[in-house]
């Protein structure tokens, strides 16, 4: 008989395997051990067919009972359950006890096929001879954006051109908790709790007090529009009752 492809599913693995119908149940279990990590004596096998039925793969004499006695069908699920108590099972997802190799920095810097070597060859990042001047240009542009927009602490503004996101500028400066950026950010306390934080980020408070209401947001200067943006009155458009 031809091999039958089955989907072998266990707590720690899921894969497609070809099963030979002439195998005995004992042979199958021994072949499933390196796949699932479950010892043969602790395996409980169930076959879930395409019509939704579940058939237990078991017999009184598993050494001689062959698999062709069960309704094997292509791509049916073969479920492998570990009958051991939870504290007796090996946790293959826990890598805390696995020894990890860490390449010494000196050795990594000598390699010619590393990302570091590629950056050096392509003169990218800190290896770009123009990097300091490019960084300064970005900082200068950031400062000019703040000046040209009249961004100052205490002024009213709206964010992102959204008339519903009005508020008061509470902070202008670098935010170290936001990685990968240069220049100042603008912290705005929105009139409505439609922000991302309460004026703190990454454990550092930039204004206000701890609150469950998220009125705070940090944005780049180009998204801030300073002006006479009074607090919206939700009742002003309502007809008199």
Which geometry do the CA atoms define? Answer: elongated
Name the strands of the widest sheet in spatial order: 2-1-5-3-4
Oligomer class = single chain
Number of strand segments = 12
Helix-strand sequence: EEHEEEHHHEEEEEEE
Q: What Rg do the Cα atoms give? A: 32 Å
Structural class: alpha+beta
Low-pLDDT runs of 5+ residues are: none
Helix coverage percent: 10-25%
Overview features:
alpha+beta; 12 strands; elongated
Q: Brief description of this entry?
A:
The protein has 241 residues and is α+β, with helices and mostly antiparallel strands. It has helices at residues 25-36, 105-110, 115-122, 131-148; strands at 4-9, 14-19, 43-48, 54-56, 76-82, 156-159, 166-173, 185-190, 200-201, 204-205, 216-219, 224-226. The chain has a 5-stranded mixed β-sheet with strand order 2-1-5-3-4, covered by helices on one side.
Word description of this protein:
The protein has four helices and twelve strands. Strand 9 and strand 10 form a beta hairpin. 18% of the residues lie in helices and 24% in strands. The protein is elongated. The strands form three sheets. Strands 2-1-5-3-4 form a five-stranded mixed beta sheet, covered by helices on one side. The longest helix is centred in the middle third of the chain and has 18 residues, at 131-148. The protein has 241 residues and is α+β, with helices and mostly antiparallel strands.
List the helices and strands and how they pair.
Layout: E1 4-9, E2 14-19, H1 25-36, E3 43-48, E4 54-56, E5 76-82, H2 105-110, H3 115-122, H4 131-148, E6 156-159, E7 166-173, E8 185-190, E9 200-201, E10 204-205, E11 216-219, E12 224-226
Parallel strand pairs: 1-5
Antiparallel strand pairs: 1-2, 3-4, 3-5, 6-7, 6-12, 7-8, 8-11, 9-10
